[in-house]
Amino acid sequence: MDKDTQFALLVIGLPLVGLLYCGLIIAFLMNNPFGREHPLITGFVVMVVPFSTAATIWIKASAKAYKEHELRNHSTGHQLK
Question: Any transmembrane segments, and where (predicted)?
């Protein structure tokens, strides 16, 4: 997948996923009394899910970039000090 396609998916897909996530939260709160009776637990879960997803994506991308940087430096003979 080229960079333009990835960017288009990011620009179009991310807001749609956010809307879907908000809709799921609203549906959960409307249909489940637990969500209304325990707002701190519900709020914590609602906050942790996107944060952990973003952190996982960020860490995987950073690890991939670091590995590519190490391979590039190793193949040219340069070492980081």
Answer: 7-28, 40-59
